[in-house]
Amino acid sequence: MSEEYAGDISPKEAWKILQNSPEAILIDVRTEAEWAWVGQVDLSSLKKEHLLVEWNRFPGGVSNENFVEDVAKLVANKEAELLMLCRSGVRSKYAAIALTAAGFKTAYNIAGGFEGDPNEERHRGQVNGWKVANLPWVQG
């Protein structure tokens, strides 16, 4: 797989794109368990909703072989800016690459993801990511 995609952006850059581009869509590629137990972005202040499409299936972490098709069913406009989000920015990068290869024009990876990289004690949510950037999110 080619490593071509629109590139990495910070959570705050993603927020600005969501604010300024009516067509921009955030796609959370984490698992159902992560959405339920860790939390999700809250785009209600922007009068937007994000999409939930697993890159890997829960339980078991098996690849979602229908990922591109699942996104294509939800996003008709291949010109829309897609902002891909996962826990730390790894799965979302691969998702952005896959969507770009499938013909979506602009698929970004949100670097640092929702929870960010682990700190020296291996705890997430303290170094970088959506939550550390103090962007809106909800839990439960």
UniProtKB/TrEMBL annotation:
Alphabetized SUPFAM superfamilies for the sequence: Rhodanese/Cell cycle control phosphatase (SSF52821)
Xref: InterPro entries: Rhodanese-like_dom, Rhodanese-like_dom_sf, STR4-like
PROSITE patterns (UniProt xref): RHODANESE_3
Signal peptide (from-to): none
Listed Gene3D superfamilies: Rhodanese-like domain
Pfam families xrefs: Rhodanese
Rhodanese domain ranges (all copies): 20-121
The name this protein goes by in its record: Rhodanese domain protein
